Structure formats: C-alpha cells, structure tokens
Amino acid sequence: MLIRGKRDIPSSEITPESAWFNRRTFVAGLAAAGLVGTARATPQYQITGTGQEELEGVSRGPFNASEPANSYEDITTYNNFYEFGVGKDDPHRNSGSFKPQPWTVRVEGEAEVTGEFDIEGLLSGVGLEERVYRMRCVEAWSMVIPWVGVPLGEVLKRFRPRSRAKYVAFQTVLRPDEMPGQRRRVLRWPYVEGLTIEEATHPLTLLAVGVYGVTLPNQNGAPLRLVVPWKYGFKGIKSIVSIRLQERQPPTSWNISAPQEYGFYANVNPEVDHPRWSQATERRIGSGFSGLFARRIPTQMFNGYADQVAHLYSGLDLRRNY
Ligand code: MTE
C-alpha cells in the first residue's frame, strides 16, 4: 500500500498539520509492514478529497454484495458511536478532536504470542482487501459499505491461539477527554464485544482500517474496527485497543445494558423480532430510500450470508440464542 501523491484538497486545509503528518506515518507504516498487494490494485470504490489518506495495494476480496454501495456521505454522517453521542449525526460532529494516532492494540490471553502492537505490527504480512458488505443495524436500517481491511482470522493466526481460546473479546478505547459521550453513563464504558473463535476466524470477518479506499474517519471507528456482516451492526466494535483470546464467553455492551433485547450472538434473523419492533424488513439508508418515500426491503437470514455462515449455528436454537 502506498500513499497517493495527488489529492484534490490538500489535507492541510482540512486538518491540523500534526494530524496530517500522523496519518501519513500510519499509511507509510502499513506499506513498510508489507501490506501491499503484489499487483498494484485499486479498490472498486475510492474517494478523493476527504482529508483521509488514500489506501493503495488493496485487492478485491471475496463475498462482495452486488448492490451499489451507499455514498461516502451516508456512511460517514449517519452513524452509531455512542462515545460521541447518541444521535446519528453526533459521531461526525463530535469526533473531530479524537486522535487515532499513535495507536496500539493489546493482544492478550490464550495465545502463544501476546503483547502490545502498533497497527503495522498487528497487521504485518496480511494483505489489505476491499469487501463490499451489506450491513444491517439492529434498528432495522441498512447500508452497503465498501470496507478495506484484513480477515481477522489471518491476523489471529499469527498470534497462535491455544486450544483453550474459545472466544475473542474486544474492547474500545476509553478516552472521556476526547469522547464526550463517555462522560455520560448511557452505556458502561469502555464498549466491549465478543465473538466465538469460529466466528472470529470465519473468512467473512474483517478488521477494517478503511472505507471507500481511504483510512477510516473517526466516526466510523478509526483507526481499527470490527466488521461482521451477518450480525447486527452493534457487534462491529470500533476503535479497538484490546483483543483477548479466552475460554469463557465475554460480556458485551448491549447485552449488559439490555439483556432481554440484545444477546451474545446477534445474528441477523428476520424471524426473531426485537421485543419492541419487527426485524422482518429494513430501510436502506440513502437517496430514494429515506424520508417520506422510504422503501422497506425484506431482511434476509444472516443478512444474506447464510450460505457462508449457517453451518456455524447448526444445532443451536436461534430463538433462544438471539
Ligand atoms: N462501537 C463502539 N465502540 N461504540 C458504539 O456505540 N455502535 C455499534 C457499532 N460499533 C458502536 C460501536 C452500532 S449499534 C452500529 S450499527 C455500528 O457500530 C455502526 O457502524 P457505522 O457507524 O460505521 O455504520
């Protein structure tokens, strides 16, 4: 991956010089870590002039949705990131002073290799891929998002999980100074999430560092977040600082907050309603789909990824294990 030389808007006009320098270091660091495809590939979706670094050497990954992607604007202005407020436009309005660089992630627990790694060290040797995924929020809206990231399973393999590692627990950074939402107790902070080891190592599961061919904006979980497209969006924990391999099922933020409404699995399932609303249909965010003319589309089992993931849950009662 390389930094693109040409930019439509010099980032110095958008962000302070120090932030610009840090992002350059981030992308250059990824390049140095060998995260460059052998052929100079470019993503299908790449935007310029956003102030984010453009990613190169991104190969086209498998399982891409055939629907057109939502606009960069939809994806970066309609968000859930309670650390910056509970409104959909709060994350993009309130995340300007969040500093995603420098950044380190602790890899802990039942693995032969553990420690604290910068992003380059964490992702070293794993190629960046573009994955255009359907994303379904538990609030019954959806988007199609072209992520850039690496399969989490490829990353975890390098830390050599032990056989006792049955689950993976994730934690978001705790920085009330930079994250105004963390000064209010709307959730118990820091935000935590978890997956079974089979889910975490499934080839669909991504650790994303970018969207639309550029580094993740703060509101989308910079510099590193989880993407699990067959689950409700709240499983996609943002701004990760800890990845722990463990034997016991970890607690998860929404399950702690409202256990009768949000379970550990959170697989998209049109047949199991949320206690307060139906999950049978969804509203696709974006032009032609919002406001008065909002068209609802049927929600698919496992968000349309049943062929890839249904086998993970054979024998499990999905009504009880929601
Ligand atoms: N991660 C953290 N740390 N805090 C949050 O509030 N919200 C979740 C998830 N990850 C959330 C989070 C929810 S409910 C959704 S739908 C997705 O992020 C939204 O991701 P997006 O804003 O990039 O579309």
3D architecture notes:
The chain has 322 residues and is an alpha+beta fold. The protein has one domain (2-313): Oxidoreductase, molybdopterin-binding domain (Sulfite Oxidase, Chain A, domain 2, Alpha-Beta Complex), CATH 3.90.420. 16% of the residues lie in helices and 21% in strands. It contains eight helices and 13 strands. Strand 2 and strand 3 form a beta hairpin. The model is unreliable at 1-23 (pLDDT under 50). Ligand MTE binds next to loops.
Summarize the entry for a quick read:
This protein has 322 residues and is an alpha+beta fold.
Based on the model shown, name its key terms.
322 residues; alpha+beta; Sulfite Oxidase, Chain A, domain 2; 8-stranded mixed sheet; 5-stranded mixed sheet; binds ligand MTE
Ligands bound here? ligand MTE
Overall pLDDT score: 89
Number of strands: 13
Number of distinct helices = 8
What is the CATH C-level name?
Alpha Beta
Strand content: 15-25%
Which homologous superfamily in CATH is the superfamily? Answer: Oxidoreductase, molybdopterin-binding domain
Radius of gyration, whole Å: 19 Å
Domain module tally: 1
Structural class: alpha+beta
* N- and C-termini, Cα separation: 39 Å
Largest sheet: 8 strands, mixed
- What sequence of helices (H) and strands (E) makes up the elements? HEHHEEHEEHEEHEEEEHEEH
CATH topology: Sulfite Oxidase, Chain A, domain 2
Helix content: 10-25%
Shape: globular
Residue runs with pLDDT of under 50 for 5 or more positions: 1-23
